[in-house]
Design goal:
This protein is an alpha+beta fold. It has one domain: 3-Layer(aba) Sandwich (Aminopeptidase). It is 26% helix and 39% strand. It contains 4 helices and 7 strands; from the N terminus they run αββββαβαββα. It has a 7-stranded mixed beta sheet. The relative contact order is 0.13.
C-alpha cells in the first residue's frame, strides 16, 4: 500500500497520501473486497508485474446493495508504468468480470477532468463520456471538475 502514500500517485484521487497506519487499515478493508454478487458488493485486485511481482496498480469495482446491476469502477496506477497498456488490460478484465460473470447491466467511472491518462483508459476500453461536472468536488483544498464515463452490457458485447 506504499503506492497510496506517494503524492504523485494519489494526485487525482479524492484522498491525500496515506500514512502507514491508514495504509494498513485500508489493506485490512481491501481483504474483504472479494466479489460482486448477491452477498458481496465490492471487488478489488492488485495489479503486479508477473516477472518481478512488483505492485504497479490496483483496480476495483463496487455497487450498492440496492442496485446490484450497476457498478462503479476505479483504478490507480503508478505513473512509472503509464503508457504500457497495463491499466487498459486490467480495467478491461474488470469490465469483463462485471458484465460476463457478475451479470451487471451498467458500469460507470469518474475522474478528475485534468487526469487525461485516466480518461484515455476509459475511452480506450469503450466507455463513453456521459457528463462533465464543473467544480463538482472539493478535493485537497480546491474545487475540481469531474467527468463521468459509462458503458452498458449491450455496448460491451458489441464493441
Amino acid at each position: 500500500m506504499a503506492m497510496h502514500s506517494d503524492p504523485e500517485i494519489v494526485r487525482y484521487v479524492p484522498y491525500p497520501p496515506l500514512t502507514r497506519e491508514e495504509a494498513e487499515e485500508r489493506l485490512r478493508s481491501i481483504a474483504t473486497m472479494t466479489a460482486i454478487d448477491d452477498e458481496a458488493q465490492q471487488l478489488r485486485f492488485a495489479v503486479v508485474l508477473p516477472e518481478t511481482d512488483e505492485l504497479i496498480g490496483d483496480v476495483s469495482m463496487w455497487c450498492s446493495p440496492n442496485d446490484r446491476l450497476h457498478a462503479e469502477i476505479g483504478y490507480v496506477f503508478n505513473p512509472r508504468f503509464h503508457g504500457r497498456g497495463y491499466a487498459t488490460e486490467a480495467v478491461t478484465e474488470l469490465l469483463r468480470i462485471g458484465f460476463e460473470e457478475a451479470g451487471l447491466h451498467r458500469i460507470t467511472a469518474n475522474a478528475d477532468a485534468r487526469n487525461v491518462t485516466s480518461i484515455r483508459v476509459m475511452e480506450r476500453i469503450g466507455m463513453r463520456r456521459e457528463a462533465h461536472f464543473i467544480q463538482n468536488a472539493y478535493e485537497k483544498g480546491q474545487w475540481v471538475d469531474e467527468v463521468e464515463y459509462g458503458i452498458l452490457a449491450d455496448e460491451w458485447r458489441t464493441r
